Amino acid sequence: MGYDLYLILRTLALPPACLLLLLLLGLALLSMRRRWLGAVAIVTATVALVALSTPVVGRALWTPLITHAPLERPVSFDRCQAIVVLGGCLAIAAPEWGSDTVSTASLARLRYGIALARESGLSIALTGGSPVPSEIPEAEVVRRVAEGEFGHPIKWIEDRSRNTAENASLTHTLLSPAGITRICLVTHAEHMGRAEAAFLGAGFTVVPAPIGLPETAALHVRDYLPTAGGLSLSSRAATEWLGRAWYWLRRQSGISQDESQG
Q1: Residue 22: in which H helix or E strand, if any?
Q2: Is the per-residue pLDDT at 106 higher than 90?
Q3: How far apart are alpha carbons 241 and 72 in whole angstroms?
């Protein structure tokens, strides 16, 4: 129940839910004859929703999160001892599969991790537990896809973590008995800064292997128009900014990694 409440609160704090709440507040203020305050809330919510729905604003929020260049390949044992692939959530009860399966994000990370493993000869560690209701942990679902569909064996599974901080600490517990301290870390580019900090804090030497790096195409006039894709990009960026703010507050307050839920 505690984690469910956290997910609900996080959703309400992010666009578009936070803007819809502000819009409802504005309407409530109008009904209470607080017309000036109501009008300000409604206009603010509307303008913010339109702005965040434009790809140009989404890019502006997202680009500063990208702090790493593409991985210099090939990866060698001199640089890394293992490849760690972070989970990217599950598609719960996917009708076409008849069960939980990997999300688009998890599949992209797995595909890149397997490509790196095949060219380097390094083994893969998957990390991801069950932060949402699921019959089996995320890392186990990803393992089944890796071995059943890609035909690539997975050596290590960490299946208890609920967040990035726990990904790092529990993976260190899993790999340190084998003497593994140098890892190639695979996750999405906007998440890499926070993930790298967590794994460094857990005791690893990290070689970042980001995916989903920004497009290099020039802006087009359509990028200034509201779209569902623009809102999705802004929401992704806002999610990561919120996560970084939470981790910063956690460090300032001295909360350990295992106690965080971001």
Answers
A1: helix 17-31
A2: yes
A3: 27
